[in-house]
Amino acid sequence: MILLSQFELFCGYFGMNTTTLRSEDFLPTRYSLLSRLQNWDDQASWKDFFDTYWRLIYAVALKSGLNDAEAQDVVQETVISVAKNIQKFKRDRTLGSFKGWLRNLTRWRIADQLRKRTNAEALPMDIAEDGSYGGDVAGIADSAEDASVWEDEWRMNLMKVALENLKRMVKEEHYQMFDLYVVKQWPADRVARTLDVSVGQVYLAKFRLGAMLKKEIRRLETSEIHIA
Q1: For the chain, which terminus, N or C, has the lower number of CB atoms within 10 Å?
Q2: Which residues is 133 bridged to in the sheet?
Q3: In whole angstroms, what is the distance from residue 216 CA to residue 195 CA?
Q4: What are all long-range contacts of 143-148, with beta carbons under 8 Å and residues at least 24 apart?
Q5: Percent of the chain with pLDDT over 70
Q6: Residue 24 — pLDDT band, cuts 50, 70, 90?
Q7: 154-186, pLDDT tens digit by residue?
Q8: What is the overall mean pLDDT for the chain?
Q9: Which whole number is the average pLDDT over 206-219?
Q10: Residue-level pLDDT at 125
Q11: What does the alpha-carbon distance between residue 159 and residue 217 come to, in Å, rounded to a whole number?
Q12: In the predicted model, is pLDDT for residue 3 greater than 60?
């Protein structure tokens, strides 16, 4: 389990912990989602999009009081909403940042699930070109606390995605040193004994991979949506 509060000691990023989620736990959801997006051409980009944002949407849904099945539905329906409206978002910069737009889509999909629980009349499922509801959304709660949760989860999600990307970029033994020393906070001599390497190699892995991780986080923070 990655404890971000420990990781913060090294890279100065995020100090909150979150539920550990594995990409393989969502394979059925991903395959189902991709089949529903089959009319869109760039499947590789949509897979990359899903892998980047599913944890964020899922975690916020759980913190809103939904169960696992409901949260998975929110993930699927939110990404479907993005797919239907991404071109409009790209053209119309008055819709704001992608982060804020995705947050609104997620909130509305969460509201759908909460309404289903009470068998109340659901808000219309047809959304406008900007991804918003055509009807009254005054009943969908929003607050500074909700915004803070989204911001925290957004940052933690970036960290997790960056760590996964880093792991694919480097040799396994180098990532093991970094993971044990920096992420899990083992003493350097213990890492060296466990992996049969020198303490100097452990420090070097921390320096090199730490720089790579920060660069990857910056890339994720500043990159645009690359969906055709």
Answers
A1: N
A2: 127
A3: 26
A4: 146/107, 147/103
A5: 64
A6: low
A7: 888 888 888 999 999 999 999 999 999 998 899
A8: 76
A9: 90
A10: 47
A11: 7
A12: no
User: Smallest Cα–Cα separation from 126: which of 108, 113, 110, 139?
Assistant: 108
CA dist., res. 169 & res. 163, Å (int): 10
**Tokens representing residue 160 in the block:** 């997790």
Encode the chain in three state secondary structure.
Answer: CCCHHHHHHHHCCCCCCCCCCCHHHHHHHHHHHHHHCCCCCCHHHHHHHHHHHHHHHHHHHHHCCCCHHHHHHHHHHHHHHHHHHHHHHHHCHHHCCHHHHHHHHHHHHHHHHHHHHCCCCCCCCCECCCCCECCCCCCCCCCHHHHHHHHHHHHHHHHHHHHHHHHHHCCHHHHHHHHHHHHCCCCHHHHHHHHCCCHHHHHHHHHHHHHHHHHHHHHHHHCCCCCC
Structure token pair of residue 68: 């696992």
Query: In the predicted model, is pLDDT for residue 57 greater than 90?
Result: yes
Span 170-228 CATH architecture: Orthogonal Bundle (1.10)
CA distance 195 to 112: 50
Domain spans of the chain?
20-161, 170-228
